[in-house]
Request: fold
Amino acid sequence: DIQMTQSPSTLSASVGDRVTITCRASQSISSWLAWYQQKPGKAPKLLIYKASSLESGVPSRFSGSGSGTEFTLTISSLQPDDFATYYCQQYNSYPLTFGPGTKVDIK
Amino acid sequence: EVQLLESGGGLVQPGGSLRLSCAASGFTFSSYAMSWVRQAPGKGLEWVSAISGSGGSTYYADSVKGRFTISRDNSKNTLYLQMNSLRAEDTAVYYCAKDRVVTAKTPDDAFDIWGQGTMVTVSS
Reply:
């Protein structure tokens, strides 16, 4: 199985900050990586697919990069609506696996 | 509007069974692979099971293999998860999720549509 790790586990930031979250896969997953945002009590929301493609309707301040085993999600200027937990997920092979999540909270 | 609506959650005793349903609307259900993803209270996301658009291929996490069965009725636009031999560690919100696009690869794609989730509590 492919293990996914994320760092940091928690990130304290202010509105307007540039935020970067890292996701690593235990083996190469090419670009088959997605990023999701989840708020408390809500279902996850797709932000990025295929490592760097922005899902329709997602603000352009979100961007993704990477391939192989190392990936990043960047929020260029953090907005109040962005305080949430972010998960990466590989869909290179079954079983599908998620990272443990990164909680972005208010500094 | 593309929508997924789960139902069937509830309180069940250890060793018991439950069947979850996910009603789909707003898209050609039979074309898309579907998955179940769960989230234990205060924990992260865990993929549980997936099924191809035709229903001919199914996939399971090791944690549920042999106890859970995924199925679909394309005539009713509904996805199911039959859960048997339930354990306390199966307690979670269960989400159904739709693959973003149909591709030639397996798995197809990321999940672009999620249901609101249904809570399953396994406790005596």
